[in-house]
Amino acid sequence: MQNARRIRYSLVLFPECTVTYEIAVDSAKEHTRDSRTVTGLCRQKARWILEYLYENAVTAEHWRDVLEDLLVQI
What we know:
The protein is an alpha+beta fold. Helices cover 32% and strands 39% of the residues. The protein has helices at residues 43-55, 63-73; strands spanning 5-14, 18-27, 31-39. It has a three-stranded antiparallel sheet with strand order 1-2-3, covered by helices on one side. The protein is globular and about 40 Å long.
């Protein structure tokens, strides 16, 4: 069995079309955070990416690869 853990996806939008994505993983044994800042995204595209990560339950181990793939597509 796997240990229960909670993944939190967050997005910080800045006025100059810069966004910071953060993934935080909380469990009984670990607490980790990872973030990535991206420039040149409008608010709508930034939110679309965050919704995609959340709705598809992208894991903490793979979110950076998925983010890169999504950035190429938009």
